[in-house]
Every structure is written in C-alpha cells, then in structure tokens.
Amino acid sequence: MKKFKFQIVCIDCGCLAIRIEDPVKASREATVYCGECGASRGTVGALRDLAVQTNPKVPTRSPPPSKNGLTSYDRTLVEKFRSVTANYSVSANR
Ligand SMILES: [Zn+2]
C-alpha cells in the first residue's frame, strides 16, 4: 500500500516537474509522470485533489515583503500594538 496518493517531489530524482500526457483530456485515472526521469508520480485525480487541498478559498497571494521583512500590514499591526502597549504602560505606571 502506498503512503501517498501523489508524489509532489519525485522519490527517484527529486525533481518537482511533472508530465501529463494530453492534460486537457486526461481523466482522473490518467498517470502523471515525472518530468525529469519519467517515473510514475500518481494519478491526475490525486494531483487535482492535492491542488484543492492546498488551495483554500482565501486568496493565498500575500503582499511582497518590504526591506525589513515586514509587510505594510504587519507594520500597521506593530504600530497598533505599540500604541496599545504605550497606553497600557502609562496606566499601569501609577
Ligand atoms: Zn524523477
């Protein structure tokens, strides 16, 4: 029994590339081959299931990181956190 339904990375050559013969017409039972060494990596159906699993409904596109590694969204959070903690330390500072 196989542990995995689909090999994202080829266990033979470690390549990520895949090859599907006639992907437009390929059925779920069609075999997906390694794009490098041609080993069987699973079925088209398993690949599609995997794609659905790894792509939740929320958009996965994240803003590009800025120079210090923080996104503008992160910076807004940091500023909010700082203002909150500043207020807190003032009130806690009897
Ligand atoms: Zn391979």
Structure description:
The chain is elongated and about 60 Å long. It is built from 2 helices and 3 strands. 34% of the residues lie in helices and 12% in strands. The protein has a 3-stranded antiparallel sheet with strand order 1-2-3. The chain has 2 domains: 60 residues, no CATH class; 33 residues, no CATH class. The protein is α+β, with helices and mostly antiparallel strands and 94 residues long. The site of zinc ion (ZN) has 8 residues, from loops. Zinc ion (ZN) binds next to loops.
SSE layout and pairing:
Blueprint: E1 18-20, E2 31-34, E3 40-43, H1 44-54, H2 72-92
Antiparallel strand pairs: 1-2, 2-3
The chain binds zinc ion.
Structural class: alpha+beta
As laid out across the biggest beta sheet, the strand order is 1-2-3
Helix-strand string: EEEHH
What's the story with the biggest beta sheet? Answer: 3 strands, antiparallel
Could you tell me the strand content as a percent range? 5-15%
Shape: elongated
Question: Roughly what percent helix?
Answer: 25-40%
Task: Count structural domains.
Answer: 2
Q: In whole angstroms, how far apart are the ends?
A: 67 Å
